Q: What sequence folds into this?
């Protein structure tokens, strides 16, 4: 899950302090539009995604167990 703040020109990716998936190392997700490389702790379960969406739409703080890191698109 990613969050973009256009005014601040930043994009952040959600992560958990401890991974909940049974694999380690960087994973590559392949979509029709390209590939996304993710670490295991960046993969959220649907219940966590729903909570973030609810918080966003109700203008409430995001859940405390979800952390955010800035993405750097510079090459």
A:
């Amino acid at each position: 899950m990613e969050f973009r703040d256009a005014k601040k020109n930043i994009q952040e990716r959600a992560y958990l302090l401890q991974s909940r998936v049974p694999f380690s190392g960087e994973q590559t997700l392949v979509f029709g539009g390209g590939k996304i490389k993710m670490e295991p702790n960046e993969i959220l379960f649907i219940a966590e995604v729903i909570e973030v969406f609810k918080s966003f739409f109700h203008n409430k703080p995001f859940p405390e167990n979800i952390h955010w890191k800035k993405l750097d698109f510079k090459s």
